[in-house]
Amino acid sequence: SSGINAEYGELESYDPDIVCMQEFDHQIREKFTSHFAPKGFENIYQRKPHIPYQEKDDGCFMMYRKDKFKLLKNASLGLYKSTEGLLDKPNCAQIALFECKDGSQLCVANTHLLYNPRRGDIKLTQLSLILHHIQQVVNPLQQCGGVPVVFCGDFNTCPSAPLYNLMKYGKLQYSEYTPDKISGQKGSKKSHKVAPGLWNSREMGFHEHGLVERGENELLECRETYRSLTQGSSYLAQAYRDITCSKCSDLYPYKQGSISHNINFRSAYDHIDSDGRTKEVTTYIQNDARTVDYIWYSNHDNTPQNCAHGHSCDPYCSSSVLILKSRRRLLTKPELFNMGKLPNAILGSDHQALHAMFTLYSDPVPNSSGRN
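RE: above sequence
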C-alpha cells in the first residue's frame, strides 16, 4: 500500500541503526522483515497482551543493524497484571540489551503508554513498571551506575506534565495531582487526588521509592506494619495499603505519595522555548496537535564524584557514555496545520518520526574513541 511504502521511504531516508515503532500491526511484521532484512536489519516484536474484550492486533516493534549490534537480552513485557487494578489495560513495552562490536553495551527501551487523558494513575503505574525492569537489566551490569539507556516511545504525556517530570527529574510527588492532571492532556472529569500507595508492592514486587525489589524479610515486616497501622480501618487501609518496611519508610515515607527512579534521563528534544511555549509537536490528529512522543537517554554531566573506578562522573555514570550529536527538526503546529492531518502523502504515520544521533563513548570522559 502507499502508506507502508511511505514508511519504508521515510525510515530509509534517516539511515538508522536502531528503529523503535509503536502501534505496529503484527500482520505487517513479515512485510517489514522481508523489506529490511536484505538491508542488514533484524527485529524483535512485543504484541499487546490478550485481555478479554480488549483484543489488540498491534504492539511495539524494534529493528537494529545486526552488523553493529548483537542482541544479548530481550526483556520485553506486557503491561498487564491481573492482580493489580492499575495494570488492567493492554499496553506493552520492549527492553533490549545490545552488545556493540567493541564489547560495550547499550539498553534500548520502547513503549506505548495508555492514551486515556483521565487515567494518569494507570500511565504512572505502567511507566514505573517499565523503569523498574530497565533498572533490573542495567543495574546488575553496572561499573559505576549501569549501561547507557535510550528510552523511546509514545508516552501520551505532554512536556512539563508530572509524568514528564518523573522522567526528567527522577521523582514525583504524585499525591498532589488528580489522575487527569498527571499526563497534562485534556481531562474532562474532576476526580480526587491520587491516594498514597499507588500500587500494592506485595503484588508488584517492588517499592515506589527507587523502584527497587522487595526482599522477603521486608515483606514480612511490611505486613506487620500494615496490620498495626490499619487496625481494620478501611480508610487507613487505603492510605497505608503499601506502607514499606521501616528502613524505606524512614528514608521516604510512602504515605507522602512519592515515586522515584535512579536513571538520569534527558530528552533528545527541548520541547519548550524560553517563553514557555511548545517548540514542536509530534502528532496531529482530530484537529489537535501536540507532543506526546519522546527519545530519552541516560545523561552524563561529568559532575565530579568519587566512584569505584576513580572516575570524575555523576552519581549515575556508566562505563560508557551517550552524547547527543544531532536530532531531526520536528514540524511546528502551524507547519503541520498547513500540511494537513497525519498521515498524508508525505508522512506515512499519524506521528512525526523522532530521529536522534548519538555517539557512544567507551570511557566516562569523551575522547576520540567515540562511535556513532
